[in-house]
Structure formats: structure tokens, C-alpha cells
Specification:
The chain contains 14 helices and eleven strands. By secondary structure, it is of the alpha/beta class. Strands 3-2-1-4-5 form a five-stranded parallel sheet. Strands 6-7 form a two-stranded antiparallel sheet. The two termini are 50 Å apart.
Length: 452
């Protein structure tokens, strides 16, 4: 909580210093409104950006790049909102620049100071609980890596025991044993506090043997089952009213993560609509003048949990009759596409109205791209895992799109590649991954050879 207070103080101080040195007092009332909205948006959005999580790694990203990007987005949204509410408002460029610079430096300084304090506390004893891991293979290696890379884990892997045929050295890092008596002697000699059994459910005999070996020792024994052969995603443990359960098939994103993602989506979409309003108006006029018909094209798509909604796009084709139940995808040099529409599709500008779908809560900024309902009915029985794309809201852009899987899906292989990327996104979601996809979309995703 103190870091949040410091952030608020830095934002206010930056505005006051900018006002003093910029020498502008003509629109103090509106400038104060910008400050109020900036504080409100910072309170809402900074936690979504993960700015209050302390980590030992990625100093430049966590303490410099991410805070600056988050603050500038919050700042831009605040200025645009006040300008939208009062079209006569024109903030002084000197004031805008100084406030952005001073507050950016202050927020970065808060991050660096907070990180230093937290890491000093961590070194004074947070990571002191030594554990031993019994297991082998990818599950064991993944568990060791997860503990080692966790920024705030209180555990330290001190020793391992390899149960499989894999080479002991393949486990890497801490000392490893194959002999059970020597392993138990090591646990007692070094006073290891916990033993984690990272074993498949089929190795019940091994689980019982290690439990019996340590039944006279004051060592905590925990079972972390390997369900990789059963679970669709990572098989995480969940709490069901006090009863523990392992997710074999279910949404990999918690309700808390989905709530944070939704806050970011709506804030980003709101800022995008405000910033792009002149572009949206110009495109709407161009579409209307280029051919007869409506400005927007609507099509029914499936959203989160299979709920059907109407997706919006700028119309890029001439009005034509469609056979009911049949969706004909656009192809290269499709005669139905107008000249304006060809440009919109090639630059992905026809997708901009989907920010309104995001504001309505039907889509996300980043997520699996929604397909026509007729394609859903076709592919969900052909492509493995297809239906699980709808565990979360579909997105304007996605991991598959920035990796080249966009445009016409004229083969099962293309759709399979798309789905594999979508499932990877679900399994590895993080706010940092969302920001990476947004940046990749701007860098290489807007114009693509498959966009036609």
C-alpha cells in the first residue's frame, strides 16, 4: 500500500511542478480534472499492469519499461477523456511534456526503491525453507525450474531423488541421488524441512515407500502429482469450498486474472476509441461513399463460454446474398471486395470497430480470434482442442495472428496451427504476454501477406 501512496504523491507533485515551470494558468480547472482522472486511472490500472509485484529478474522491464508505458497510457487516457468532455480544452504542450517526464522519473524511482527494500527483506530470510524433490522427467524439471524462477517463493530446492531411468545429471542444479538410504541420510544431516513427491498417479507404490521411509522423521511430505497425460492445461490445484481439486479440463485463467484482464481491456478500448475517433469517422465516410450499403458489417460469432454475439467490422465488400448456413471466406483478388475495402483489409483497419465489442464486454483486446459459427461447427469435431479457445473472450488480435496464422483458413493444417497457438496463449497467459502481443501487432501484425 505505501508504494501506491507514493505513486499518487509523485503524480500530483509532477502536475504541480509542471504547472509552476510551464507558466500556464488559463485552464487550471480542466488541468485539475486531468489530474483527478489520472489518479483514478492509475489506482485502477497500475495493479493490472503488475506494477506492485516485486521480482528479482527483468529489472529493466519491471522497474523502467512497464511503469513508463503504464503511466503514459493512463496519462493519455486522462487527457483524451477531458478533451472529449470539453472539445475546447487544449492543454499547454509544455505542461503536458513536463508532467509526463517528471512523473515518469518519479514512478520509476519508486519502483527501484521498492524493489531494493523488498529484496533486502527477502535476503534476510524469506527463502530459507529447503525442500527435496522426488521424481524424474519433465514434470520434475519443470517443478525445479518453477521454484527457482519464482520471484517471491519461500522455498529452495536443496536436493533431488531420481526415480526414473533418466540420468541424474539431467535434473540439473542441486545434488541428486539414486540410492534411497543415502538420500534419507542427506535429508536428516542437512535438516531438510519438506519432501515433495512429484510423481505420476500410477506410482502409488513409490509414494507409499517414501512415506514409510520418513515416518519417524519430522519432515513434511507433500504430493504434487504429474497429471500432464490427463490435464488439458497445467492441471493446477483449485479450492472448491474448502475441498482441493486438480483442474483436468477447465479454464486456466482464474476469476481474479479474468477480472484484471477485463479492466485493462475496457480502459485500453476506451482510450483507443477516443484517440482514433477521427480515423473511425474518416473510414466510415470512405466506406459509405465507395459503395452502397451499411457502414458496418455484423456477423454472429461465439464468445466466452460459447455465448453468441454480433461482431462489428467496417464493411469491406459489396452487398451480396449469402447462402444460408454457408460462409464463403474472402480469397485473394476476391471480386466482392471494394477498392476501399481491399485497403482496409490489407491494413486490418476494418477490425477497428471491434473496440466497441470490447467496451460492451463481448471481446478482449488480446485473445483467440473468433471464427464464423459455421466454421466452429465444422472444426470442433476435427481439430483437437478447438472448443477450448472459448474458455475466455475472443480478441481483436492474438498470439496466432502475430505468428502468421491469419487470413483465410483453407486447410485443416492452418486451423490446427491457429488452435495450437491459441491454446499456448491460454496456458501461458500473463499481462506481459498481452502487452507483447499488442506491440507485435503494431510492429508486424497490421499489414500481412495473408490479409486480403
Amino acid at each position: 500500500m505505501p508504494v501506491r501512496v507514493f505513486d499518487a504523491v509523485v503524480i500530483v507533485a509532477g502536475a504541480l511542478l509542471a504547472t509552476r515551470f510551464a507558466g500556464t494558468n488559463s485552464q487550471n480547472g480542466f488541468d485539475s480534472a486531468v489530474l483527478a482522472f489520472a489518479l483514478l486511472f492509475a489506482l485502477i490500472c497500475f495493479p493490472v499492469f503488475g506494477m506492485y509485484r516485486v521480482g528479482r529478474r527483468h529489472l529493466l522491464l519491471r522497474c523502467v519499461c512497464l511503469p513508463i508505458v503504464a503511466w503514459l497510457l493512463v496519462y493519455a487516457a486522462s487527457v483524451l477523456l477531458v478533451a472529449a468532455l470539453n472539445p475546447t480544452y487544449r492543454p499547454a504542450p509544455a505542461w503536458v511534456g513536463r508532467w509526463a517526464l517528471v512523473s515518469s522519473l518519479g514512478i520509476v524511482a519508486c519502483r527501484l526503491a521498492g524493489r531494493g527494500i523488498a529484496l533486502r527483506r527477502a535476503r534476510r530470510g524469506a527463502r530459507t525453507r529447503a525442500v527435496a524433490i522426488v521424481g524424474s522427467g519433465d514434470h520434475c524439471r519443470h517443478l525445479i525450474s518453477k521454484v527457482d524462477q519464482a520471484d517471491d517463493s519461500p522455498y529452495r530446492v536443496a536436493v533431488t531423488f531420481a526415480t526414473g531411468a533418466a540420468c541424474v545429471a539431467s535434473l540439473g542444479g542441486p545434488p541428486a541421488f539414486r540410492d534411497r538410504s543415502r538420500f534419507v541420510d542427506y535429508l536428516r544431516r542437512h535438516q531438510i524441512a519438506e519432501v515433495w513427491l512429484a510423481l505420476p498417479l500410477s506410482q502409488e507404490r513409490t509414494i507409499l515407500e517414501f512415506t514409510e521411509l520418513l515416518h519417524n522423521d519430522l519432515i513434511d511430505i507433500r504430493f504434487i502429482p504429474d497429471v500432464s497425460g490427463l490435464a488439458l492445461f497445467e492441471g493446477e490445484m483449485v479450492d472448491l469450498d474448502g475441498t482441493s481439486a486438480i483442474n483436468l479440463v477447465g479454464s486456466p485463467l482464474s476469476s481474479q486474472a479474468l477480472a484484471k484482464k477485463d479492466i485493462f481491456d475496457r480502459a485500453f478500448a476506451f482510450a483507443a476509441v477516443l484517440a482514433l475517433s477521427p480515423v473511425l469517422l474518416a473510414i466510415a465516410c470512405a466506406v459509405k461513399l465507395s459503395s452502397s450499403g451499411p457502414v458496418f458489417f455484423k456477423q454472429r460469432r461465439k464468445g466466452a463460454n460459447g455465448k453468441v454475439f454480433s461482431i462489428y467490422k467496417f464493411r469491406s465488400m459489396r452487398v451480396h446474398a449469402e447462402t444460408e448456413g454457408v460462409v464463403r471466406q474472402a480469397t485473394r483478388s476476391d471480386p466482392r471486395v471494394t477498392r476501399v475495402g481491399a485497403f482496409l483489409r490489407r491494413t486490418s483497419l476494418d477490425e477497428l470497430p471491434q473496440f466497441f465489442n470490447v467496451l460492451r464486454g463481448e471481446m478482449s483486446v488480446v485473445g483467440p480470434r473468433p471464427h464464423a459459427i459455421e466454421h466452429d461447427a465444422l472444426y470442433q469435431n476435427i481439430v483437437d482442442g478447438y472448443i477450448h479457445r472459448y474458455r475466455i473472450k475472443p480478441g481483436i488480435t492474438g498470439w496466432a495472428q502475430v505468428n502468421g496464422f491469419r487470413g483465410e483458413t483453407d486447410s485443416i493444417e492452418k486451423m490446427q496451427g491457429r488452435v495450437e497457438h491459441d491454446l499456448y496463449y491460454l496456458s501461458n497467459w500473463s499481462f506481459a504476454l498481452d502487452m507483447r502481443i499488442v506491440l507485435m501487432t503494431f510492429v508486424k501484425g497490421l499489414v500481412h501477406r495473408n490479409a486480403y
